Amino acid sequence: MRKIIIAGNWKMNKDASETEQFCRELGRYLQDHDPEGVLPLIAPVFPYLAQAQNILRNLPVAVAAQDVSSHAEGAYTGEVSAAQLRSLGLRHCIIGHSERRQYHGETDALIRAKLLRLRENGIRPIVCLGETLEQREQGLTEQVILRQLEGCFEQVDMPSGEEAVIAYEPVWAIGTGKTASAGQAQEVHALIRAWLQKRHGRETAQNIHILYGGSVKPSNLRELLRQEDIDGGLIGGASLQNEAFHAMIGIAAEASKGN
Ligand code: PGA
User: Fold this and answer.
1) Which residue's CA is minimally distant from atom 6 of ligand 1?
2) CA-proximal residue: ligand 1, atom 2 (nearest)
3) Distance between CA atoms of residues 162 and 156, nearest Å
4) Is the CB of 213 under 6 A from ligand 1?
5) Which residue out of 13, 169, 219 has the highest number of ligand 1 atoms within 8 Å of its CB and is therefore the one to mutate?
6) Is the pLDDT reported for residue 259 higher than 70?
């Protein structure tokens, strides 16, 4: 059984003291509530990763970075390498978020290079994919998703499915309050799993986590998690408040027990 992943993508939010406060409250919550069947994860900005990691040490929660350099080391001002993330003990990193694709011109080839760097360092990439509203309206969703999968995972070996997490995030649903309906999301998740099965075999397709992202919140998470191929959420806005984040961990814990 795949664990449910509840991942908070904080984007460029929270300063040092807000990060500390959130992590302390999350730590208290996790001491009182065993998130059985769920992996909670938060992705603060680079400068506070170590702080978050220290506060949450030994608790059942992962701290992730939001991006990584495609270079190994050296003269790349402003970049952070996969080895540097590994030296903090991080095991997860988001790559290819649509905001990086849109504002920083990231391509599937670049995302693939980042994925390989993370893999070299034993860090599990959370690879984001998704179509724009225009592409959906033109009936191009399937084509776009398959192209992104082919580009990001070209000749990437994935024998077990533990090597990566995929996050399907329709661009039109991010930060807009418009969630894809559970049915719309499931349709794309099933497409992704079928592609994985074809390219990487049944075991990989069954083990890999496919998260949905785009205006996920406590009120719509339960329905999304009822879908066969949705294994969790990559959550922006609603992950920033402790109360909502804890509620979503609780909903996922219930869902993992089949309630
Ligand atoms: P949102 O963001 O939950 O605020 O829509 C999701 C994401 O961009 O990962």
Assistant:
1) 236
2) 236
3) 13
4) yes
5) 169
6) no
Nearest CA to ligand 1 atom 1: 236
Compute the average pLDDT of residues 172-182: 88
Using CB atoms within 10 Å of the CB of residue 159, give its burial: 0 to 12 exposed, 13 to 18 middle, 19+ buried: exposed
Q: Are 96 and 74 a contacting pair, CB within 8 Å? A: no
Q: Can you tell me whether residue 42 is helix, strand or coil?
A: strand
Q: What is d(CA 145, CA 7) in angstroms, rounded to the nearest whole number?
A: 21
- Model confidence band, residue 1 (pLDDT cutoffs 50, 70, 90): confident
**Is the CB–ligand 1 distance for residue 224 below 6 Å?**
no
- Expressed as residue numbers, the domain containing 104 is 4-256
Is the confidence at residue 27, as pLDDT, over 80? yes
Is residue 67 in contact with ligand 1, taking CB distance under 6 Å?
no
Catalytic residues: 97, 169
- Any idea what the CATH number is for the domain that residue 240 is in? 3.20.20.70
For residue 194, pLDDT over 70 is answered with yes
- Ligand 1 atom nearest 214 alpha carbon: 5
How far is Cα 9 from Cα 52, in angstroms, rounded to an integer?
A: 14
164 CA to centre of own chain = 10
Domain count of the fold of the chain: 1
